[in-house]
Amino acid sequence: xxxxSALIALLVAVSCAxxxxxxxxxxxxxxxxxxxxxxxxxxxxxxxxxxxxxxFNFASGTHTVTEVSKSDYDSCSTSNSIxxxxxxxxxxxxxxxxxxYFICGIPGHCSGGMKLAVTVGSGSGGxxxxxxxxxxxxxxxxxxxxxxxxxxxxxxxxxALF
Length: 162
Ligand SMILES: [Cu+2]
Hints:
Structural class: alpha/beta
Bound molecules: copper (II) ion
Signal peptide: 1-22
Radius of gyration: 19 Å
Pfam family, one: Cu_bind_like
Protein name: Phytocyanin domain-containing protein
Region (Disordered): 122-141
Shape: globular
Largest sheet: 5 strands, mixed
Number of domains: 1
Domain Phytocyanin: 23-122
CATH superfamily: Cupredoxins -  blue copper proteins
Order of helices and strands: HEHEEEHEEEEH
CATH topology: Immunoglobulin-like
């Protein structure tokens, strides 16, 4: 009994920590992952951290989410891609600090502006710019908390019934 309580407490702590620390960004917001959108403008001012996720919304087959090197990003080449997804929507977890480059591999789309570079901070320290700016990431994190908490609650109910 005691060990189960400890397990439940641990689960609650872990799920709360996960909800608090990771943010899911919807690339292009309501426009999704598409042509004729300014993704550098979308990314600017956002503080991406390790563990955050990028949600690319598109219909399967219409676009790709292809992670590439900086030089391939600059030249819109997918011949040395790091990863490639053709099925939408695609969620990419930002697993490491540094700049990550994503382009669409459909001919003409990347050169038409369908490319995204996100710079991921090391995680600690927070924003060097505009600390007072009310930003949307916290709001989207709160929106993500609902499903995550529902899942956690479901696990707890199963544990209690075990
Ligand atoms: Cu495309």
